[in-house]
Design goal:
Elements (H helix, E strand, L loop, with lengths): L1 E7 L5 H8 L7 E4 L9 H4 L14 E5 L11 E5 L18 H11 L9 H11 L2 E2 L5 H12 L15 E4 L1 E2 L1 E2 L2 E2 L2 H5 L10 E4 L4 E6 L5 E6 L2 E11 L2 H11 L2 E2 L1 H6 L6 E2 L11 E2 L2 E5 L13 E7 L2 E8 L14 E8 L7 E3 L10 E3 L6 H18 L8 E6 L7 H11 L1 E2 L31 E3 L14 H18 L1
Parallel strand pairs: 1-2, 1-13, 2-10, 13-25, 14-15
Antiparallel strand pairs: 3-4, 5-7, 6-18, 8-9, 11-12, 12-13, 16-24, 17-20, 17-23, 18-19, 19-20, 21-22
Helix pairs in contact: 1-11, 4-11, 9-10
Length: about 475
């Protein structure tokens, strides 16, 4: 099998990229996805069912993290292994990366990745995906919006290009209760895709094949070799993209040699700079029954600039608790996270075998700034829970509980029960090729390798201070622009 461009990974970015490249009828594109199709599957497409999808290992891969003494190491990342990737099993929260965040990207990757340079990509993505307000508004969630306003937070009525501040109903990439993932928006129906786009599902890529001149000429998969006449683009996500690079002989020389892999390109930044939004959970039991209403039950969020940094907190009317805490039948959860995390981790190889999962060390809370932001977020959540609008709704605080009443105790609770918003990024960082931390340049080309690019959350120089799903879709659009312009 051969194609002009082979895109590895049919997830949030890859599905966008492949479909947009196929708009050129003279370019043959092959999209290779390790999981199944999502088409026709109501268990995936009906948005209210998203809460169960992370546990379905037929479409989700669980990734454990390496133990650390300073924070909870038992949490698990779940990444989508299905067309649409994580956009096929997340909560469909649809926020544009704020201009301030993209300006930080432009500072290291050039103006083409700033607010103006990405504007056309954003507009094409919004026109294709469609974003709207939640249609079914839970009354407990509505009370949280009122409570936020009572504590002095502005109510967010519309979502612009600035960094959000306040409390409001989130926009969703959904329509009539069905998700608008990258696969739904860009690939469905598969039977009507252009003839120059081939989608291969249930096909795992084991490595990128390089020729003697150091150029990507194809990929080796579980079903044989696929040749790439023009180039290969990795869109396998923040864990699998660096793993594939290293299995292909591209990465830190000592790391590759320790697993008996050839060192074709010594690229220290591969697998470094792992970013994520660490979060903590506060939960209250309900004083009365909470109606089973909502598009996906987490439609409200809080955004605040605290003395310890920006905080984002999602609000759930189907409560969750850390292990060991009692789960109420009805309740409210608020999950503050460090919106601009300073802790950076790593992704490394477990072995030289493609089937083995990588070693993931997010290094959560290795920077005290992140812990301080989570403590500030927890204090804010408690202040909102104590506001008059929530008095008819809330009973006791079940996690961490009223006994956890000082910042020092909150810090211990946060470290012990830390969770994640499931936003890993940054492990093939985009930047100046002269910086040894850089993996791809502003054209998404892997440094030191010809005809090989990366287009997914791996390239993020910094994590957006909002949910990054739409940013990943924008990266797919922007990558298609770049590749088309280079032809």
């Amino acid at each position: 099998m051969n194609a002009d461009v082979v895109v590895v990974g049919g997830g949030t970015s890859g599905a966008v990229l492949a479909r947009r490249l196929a708009d050129d009828p003279d370019l043959s594109v092959m999209l290779v996805e390790s999981g199944p199709s999502d088409e026709g599957r109501d268990d995936i497409l009906l948005l209210p069912r998203w809460l169960t999808l992370g546990a379905d290992e037929a479409i989700s891969v669980p990734y454990s993290i390496e133990p650390r003494p300073d924070a909870n190491s038992s949490l698990v990342h779940t990444r989508g292994r299905v067309l649409g990737g994580c956009s096929s099993h997340n909560a469909a929260i649809a926020l544009r990366a704020p201009d301030a965040d993209l300006e930080r990207w432009a500072a290291v990757a050039g103006p083409g990745w700033g607010p103006d340079g990405t504007e056309q990509a954003w507009q094409r993505m919004f026109a294709t995906v469609g974003v709207g307000a939640a249609k079914s508004r839970n009354p407990l969630a509505a009370a949280v919006v009122q409570a936020g306003a009572q504590t002095g937070l502005p109510v967010i009525e519309s979502w612009g290009r600035g960094r959000p501040h306040g409390v409001g109903w989130l926009p969703l990439n959904a329509r009539a209760g069905r998700r608008r993932s990258s696969s739904v928006a860009y690939l469905h129906p598969l039977s009507r895709l252009p003839e120059n786009l081939t989608v291969l599902t249930d096909t795992s890529v084991e490595r990128v094949e390089l020729d003697g001149a150091g150029a990507a000429v194809g990929v080796i998969t579980s079903k044989g070799r696929i040749g790439a006449r023009h180039e290969v683009v990795l869109s396998a996500g923040a864990f699998e993209t660096p793993k594939l690079l290293m299995l292909s002989g591209i990465g830190p020389a000592a790391e590759l040699a320790s697993h008996g892999l050839p060192v074709l390109v010594d690229l220290p930044g591969v697998g470094a700079h792992l970013l994520d939004h660490p979060e903590t959970t506060l939960t209250w039991s309900a004083a009365r029954e909470v109606p089973d209403e909502g598009d996906q039950f987490w439609e409200v969020a809080l955004f605040a600039d605290t003395d310890s940094g920006p905080v984002m907190a999602h609000v759930g009317t189907k409560p969750v608790v850390p292990p060991g805490f009692p789960l109420p039948d009805h309740g409210l959860s608020i999950t503050p996270n460090a919106a601009v995390p300073r802790s950076h981790g790593t992704v490394r190889l477990r072995s030289g075998r493609p089937g083995d999962p990588p070693l993931i060390d997010p290094a959560y809370l290795s920077r005290e700034d992140d812990l301080a932001a989570l403590i500030a977020g927890a204090v804010l959540a408690r202040r909102i829970a104590a506001a008059p609008a929530l008095a008819p709704w809330l009973g006791e605080e079940v996690a961490p509980g009223a006994d956890c009443d000082s910042e020092e105790e909150l810090g211990r609770y946060i470290r012990a029960t830390l969770s994640t918003v499931q936003h890993p990024a940054g492990t093939a960082r985009m930047g100046d090729p002269g910086d040894e931390a850089t993996v791809v340049d502003s054209q998404l080309r892997v440094c030191g390798v010809q005809r090989l690019r990366v287009a997914d959350a791996s390239i993020f120089p910094e994590l957006p201070s909002v949910n990054p799903c739409l940013t990943c879709m924008m990266v797919g659009e922007r990558a298609a622009e770049i590749i088309s312009e280079s032809r």
